[in-house]
Amino acid sequence: MVDEDEDDVVDGINITPLVDVLMVVLVMFILTATAQVAGIQVNLPKASSTVSLSISQTKAISVNEAGQVFLDAYPVTLPELEERLRTEKALSPDFPVIVRGDAEVQYHRVVEVLDLLRRLELSQVGLVTGKPT
Q1: 29 with 85: CB under 8 angstroms?
Q2: Cα(62)–Cα(40) distance, rounded to whole angstroms?
Q3: Which of 45, 61, 90, 125 is 20 to 30 A from 109, comparing alpha carbons?
Q4: Which domains are assigned to the chain?
Q5: CA distance 99 to 127
Q6: d(CA 52, CA 64)
Q7: Around Cβ 81, how many Cβ atoms within 10 Å?
Q8: Which of 106, 20, 26 lies closest to 63 in space, CA to CA?
Q9: Distance between CA 34 and CA 47 in Å, rounded?
Q10: What is the pTM of this model?
């Protein structure tokens, strides 16, 4: 006698594992697409081409329209900025730094920040610009 259960053919495909994998991929895409470097809101000048520096250890230095300097959204003076960057350099010698200067800021304030970065011998420095309109 033959058991009828053994002769049954499976007509469908179990897509539950596929849906699980797709949900994980979707969540990872959403998280990486919305990740940004911490900072304050500044009106960036426009450039013809831009380079993305979305690295988790990137330090963001922002200069707002009033000339105030911020390190990762926290207001600092230039001596405090130098001290914090020296501490970070001791922990990670080759970390990237981005400088975000407001389009209305006085040019010498951004140059002071760039001079400080040069004195600290930080080689991975980028200037953030906005996309042209």
Answers
A1: no
A2: 7
A3: 90
A4: 59-127 (3.30.420.270)
A5: 5
A6: 21
A7: 20
A8: 106
A9: 22
A10: 0.56
